[in-house]
Amino acid sequence: xxxxxxxxxxxxxxxxxxxxxxxxxxxxxxxxxxxxxxxxxxxxxxxxxxxxxxxxxxxxxxxxxxxxxxxxxxxxxxxxxxxxxxxxxxxxxxxxxxxxxxxxxxxxxxxxxxxxxxxxxxxxxxxxxxxxxxxxxxxxxxxxxxxxxxxxxxxxxxxxxxxxxxxxxxxxxxxxxxxxxxxxxxxxxxxxxxxxxxxxxxxxxxxxxxxxxxxxxxxxxxxxxxxxxxxxxxxxxxxxxxxxxxxxxxxxxxxxxxxxxxxxxxxxxxxxxxxxxxxxxxxxxxxxxxxxxxxxxxx
Length: 299
Description:
With 299 residues, this protein is α+β, with helices and mostly antiparallel strands. It has helices at residues 10-32, 34-40, 47-66, 73-95, 106-132, 147-154, 245-290, 292-298, and strands at 135-143, 169-175, 178-185, 188-198, 202-207, 216-228, 231-242. It folds into two domains: 3-132, no CATH class; 135-298, START domain (Alpha-D-Glucose-1,6-Bisphosphate, Chain A, domain 4). The protein is built from eight helices and seven strands, in the order H-H-H-H-H-E-H-E-E-E-E-E-E-H-H. The protein has a seven-stranded antiparallel sheet with strand order 1-7-6-5-4-3-2, covered by helices on one side. The longest helix is centred in the last third of the chain and has 46 residues, at 245-290. The radius of gyration is 29 Å and the shape is elongated. Residues 1-9 have low confidence and may be disordered.
């Protein structure tokens, strides 16, 4: 199961369907009753409402098409932005209709208030879904070594403290066949659980955020290796859901990738140094086994 599976996209796709259907039906009604609406809003021509109706129908059709995507995040973000823009504009119309050359009747005011509240609900729901969906960032570097050599180094959970300056100590233990790593730094301590493991491919460590000293509701890291032209690509992917709703998500979307890249690049450089050192030791051991007399003479 991937990291994002626990944050189901079914709800995200469903809200796109609901928003799309609402937009299409609203656009159709506006176009059909454009003449009546023109009188209620004090306009001289129905062309405005015909244009608005057509635009809403196209917009809703785009949302319905996007609802079938397995990665709807971008469209949900765009829909939330569009809905918020609609709310701002209709609120402005209600507050100062004369600015737009409008003269609103009571039915026009009620219709505008109702649609504004519905669209605002869609915007809030979409922002909430975006806020609780994990963001992720991957750093990949190619190292001089085989997949086996690289895996031996990155799979050493207890040795991770030797490759990063971010963690001061760590202790790996097995709890009911589950591997748990106890970590500590200058701000506090926390536990990480191995939730996925495939030899010579990847493993994932998920943080128990109940006592995490950092403002995240969810945080996990995945280490992986892949052969590339007789070398090995080491990748580290971090996924997170910050506290602070959509505002926290925006802040960390700006700050975290740069911090991750700097720390991970240094870690992978140390991984490569260990790979080369391990290979040197292995070659020396092999040489001693093949030439025991020479080895004794050298000592």
